[in-house]
Amino acid sequence: MNNSFINSALKPFENEETDTLTCIQTPYQLIVWNDDINTFDWVIDTLIKVCHHTSEQAEQSAMIVHFKGKCAVKNGDYDFLKPMCDAITERGIGATIESLVEN
Fold it and tell me: Which of 5, 23, 34, 87 fits a 20 to 30 Å CA distance from 13?
């Protein structure tokens, strides 16, 4: 076997071009609240249509809402979440937008 190949394989990878990974925390979350009125199917359908969840995501979120009382279903900027929150509440489901940034 070629020793120069082995030696080059053991050298640390060096790359002159580097990318910077920046962590950007979205400042708000859309919360869906539990109630005794809406059915699982209605909440699931709403999350699929309004928040563009997959059926699996929507089912899991509905279960969390039921057992924990609430679930953060989407994160993002306020202006991104506001129309979704309005659409959810127009369907008779409790929803709010909460800040993730502490004051």
Answer: 23
Which tokens go with 29? Answer: 């979350």
The separation between CA 17 and the C-alpha centre of its own chain, rounded to angstroms, equals 31
Round to whole Å and give the CA distance between 55 and 35.
21
pLDDT averaged per 10 residues in sequence order, the chain, 103 residues: 49 53 73 97 98 98 98 97 98 97 72
For 48, phi then psi, to 5°, come to: -70, -50
Tokens for 93, please give them: 């489901």
Cα separation, 22 vs 28, whole angstroms: 18
Q: Indicate the CATH number for domain 26-99.
A: 3.30.1390.10
